[in-house]
Write a structure and sequence with these properties.
The protein has about 140 residues and is an all-beta fold. Helices cover about 0% and strands about 75% of the residues. The chain is built from no helices and seven strands. Strands 1, 2, 3, 4, 5, 6 and 7 form a seven-stranded antiparallel beta sheet that branches.
Length: about 140
């Protein structure tokens, strides 16, 4: 016959994270009605967490992650209504996690999860021409 034993645990979790966002942009007029524009956005986030469980089960979990986002855009406009541009986006989110767990019967489990470059890149080009039509007689 199986015996049921109640589990009593105490859990303590500590963590810290930092997030930084930044943006820079500039416009440059090459000649009359010819303009070149540039914008860059960025975001950086780091996270460190630790969790300890004590009682019927002993376990420790450590995890770290760092996220980067880069976005850049370059636009050019002409006096006759044509606009052209290029945009680039890059995202990367590497992380790792360590889990060590032990029951009171001395059964031990160790896990390590390491996820390296979870990255995404996207880009696009575009152009647009604005045309103004005049009504007859204007």
């Amino acid at each position: 016959m199986a015996r049921c034993t109640p589990m009593a645990t105490d859990e303590v979790r500590r963590g810290r994270s930092h997030t930084h966002s930044f943006r820079v942009g500039a416009d440059y007029t090459i000649a009359k009605d010819h303009q070149l524009s540039f914008v860059y956005n960025g975001n950086y986030t780091t996270s460190h967490n630790r969790m300890n469980i004590n009682g019927s089960q002993q376990s420790a979990t450590l995890s770290n992650s760092t996220d980067w986002l880069h976005n850049g855009r370059l636009d050019y406009s002409t006096p006759f209504g044509m606009k052209a541009g290029v945009e680039f986006t890059y995202y990367r989110s590497p992380s790792d996690q360590l889990l060590n767990s032990r029951l009171l019967e001395n059964d031990e489990l160790d896990f390590f999860l390491h996820r390296t470059a979870s990255a995404s890149t996207a880009g696009k080009c575009f152009w647009r021409r604005n045309t103004a039509w005049a009504r007859a007689g204007d």
